[in-house]
Write a structure and sequence with these properties.
5 helices, 7-stranded antiparallel β-sheet, about 240 residues, alpha+beta, 7 strands
Length: about 240
């Protein structure tokens, strides 16, 4: 059983946030690995995601059905997904509440998995689910801020040029969805938080891990250079 629960504050009016979380184009941009999301029936979406974390490898297709809609306050949702490594079924509730500096977005959810995915263990699945939820909400906040505080165009700039570097979205363009690398890093971060609650210990482990990786990389590069030198001398 996967269980999720959290409350996030968004710097945006409740009506705007409600509109955006029911927009399939916005949702397709905020969910990691989401290839597409379309409306198939009233309050029902159909889409597909590409996920590659351990045994969760491949394209997952499924539906999200909304019910008990109380605009702009709350709704219930039911999720059904199927992929090459298993089946995911879940449901949850979303609630929006006016706050002093925006809107509080609260959610609770439960899910069941079956198939090869179930073999990875409860902690890995919980970390993966939390990573999807956290990255989706982080990117939703970016989408919201792009809508509430759009980047102005630079007056007199040549066509195709703006304030942002080439790697950043153009002015007025919504941010892209998290990459697969972002998703994997999010899973690793959540797992590290669960196994090592102390922030200082986590920093120490990350530093040690980086040092070990650097030593391995330098050693590999040195061996590669040595082999090439030997080969050149033999020739």
């Amino acid at each position: 059983m996967i269980e999720l629960e959290d409350t996030v504050l968004f710097d945006a009016p409740r009506e705007l946030l409600w509109e955006m979380i029911l927009d399939p184009e916005v949702l397709a941009r905020i969910v990691p690995g989401c290839d597409k999301l379309v409306i198939v029936n009233e309050n029902e979406f159909q889409g597909q995601m590409r996920i590659k974390v351990g045994p969760m490898d491949g394209v997952f297709r499924g539906t999200v059905a909304l019910s008990d809609l109380q605009p702009p306050e709350s709704f219930h949702l039911i999720i059904n997904g199927r992929g090459p490594s298993g089946i995911i079924n879940g449901e949850g509730d979303v609630r929006l509440v006016d706050a002093e500096k925006g809107t509080e977005f609260s959610y609770t959810g439960q899910g069941q998995i079956s198939g090869r995915m179930a073999s990875v263990g409860q902690r890995v699945m919980n970390s993966s689910a939390k990573a999807v939820a956290k990255q989706s909400l982080d990117n939703l906040d970016k989408q919201v801020q792009a809508r509430v505080h759009p980047e102005p165009e630079v007056e007199g700039a040549p066509a195709g040029e703006g304030r942002q570097p080439v790697t950043e979205p153009a002015a007025g363009e919504p941010p892209p969805a998290p990459s697969q690398t972002d998703f994997i890093m999010g899973v690793a971060e959540n797992m590290l938080e669960e196994f090592v609650p102390d922030p200082q210990q986590r920093k120490l482990l990350v530093s040690l891990g980086a040092a070990v990786f650097l030593v391995i990389a330098v050693n590999w590069f040195a061996n590669l250079v040595a082999r090439r030198v030997v080969k050149m001398m033999e020739e």
